[in-house]
Amino acid sequence: MSEQQSSQLLPGLFEAIAEDQRVNVLHIGPALPETVAFFSDAGFRCKLFFLDLFAELPLVFQPGDELTVQQRMSQLMDFPQDTRFDLCLFWDIFNYLDETAIEALVDCLRPQLAIGARAHAFAVHNTRSPQLPQRFGILAGDLLNLRPRPAPLPGYAPHPQARLQALLQGLTIKRSVLLAQSRLELLLHAAA
Amino acid sequence: MIGPSIEIKGSVSGAEDLLIQGRVEGTVDLGDHEVTVGESGKVNADITARTVRIDGEVAGDIRGTEKVVISKTGNVKGNIIAPRMTLEDGAIFKGSIDMDPGDAPAKVALAPKSPAPAAAAGDKGPDLDLKQG
Known about the structure:
The complex is a heterodimer.
Chain A: E1 3-6, H1 10-14, E2 23-27, H2 33-42, E3 46-50, H3 69-76, E4 85-90, H4 99-109, E5 113-124, E6 134-140, E7 143-148, H5 161-167, E8 171-178, E9 183-190
Parallel strand pairs in A: 2-3, 2-4, 4-5
Antiparallel strand pairs in A: 1-7, 5-9, 6-7, 8-9
Helix pairs in contact in A: 3-4
Chain B: E1 7-13, E2 18-20, E3 23-29, E4 34-37, E5 42-54, E6 57-59, E7 62-70, E8 75-77, E9 80-81, E10 85-87, E11 92-98, E12 127-130
Parallel strand pairs in B: 1-3, 2-4, 3-5, 4-5, 5-6, 5-7, 6-8, 7-9, 7-10, 8-11, 9-11
């Protein structure tokens, strides 16, 4: 059964977008009907890119693997070179990636961030915060839809906020909101 | 209609609506008409039409000048260009969706009408707000 969650920080993601601006949106997660409907119905000029890294978990190097985590991430983040992302949606993914994988993700993403790019993410205030087995979609500019996952995901090991900020080279946490169960909602800006 | 036992390699074009229940490899261009890939359809091709509905499997890019729908049984790997797009519950999609409606201005504002919290300024660290519940 899905549930809805209001968001204080999502409006901050969209407030910098001009009405006639063409934007590229990167969602690191599965394509869900409500997310597609939100951007479709809004009728604004956008290109949505979906990359479901959750389907690739655990993203860790194991003996016998042919590719390093950096190489795997580079293959997965294979977007057209001239694409620059204006908005990025990192709904819960950082809680499932270890430091190497987060750095690899950000290293791939950094050159493709537009000037003034913004991102929205979920992290934790307390690393003992319980795993939230849900998928996130967007219903409105300040409202998310949370759908239960059919099975728990491997690799849940959230990072302290200060450590996460250090790993997110090129993105700065501008605001954070403490949610229930010691979870954090984050609004990030691309570093100038 | 391209029936379930039909297999086509090459270009498919025409001036009428088309239902694909078989296999197609190549390109499908129906211009101002409608293409439906039925539940048993397997298409490894780029598709262009006014409206494209996917109930089966497609690997390729899809251009719908009016609309693209991926139904609950649909599975698409590719890039989609369409001004309107519907993904039904259960649909599987990997790729990108270009929804640029051309010169038309946005129909609704993305941000809600209530003012958003002001962003932290300069080098100041992130603000931490407390939320009920």
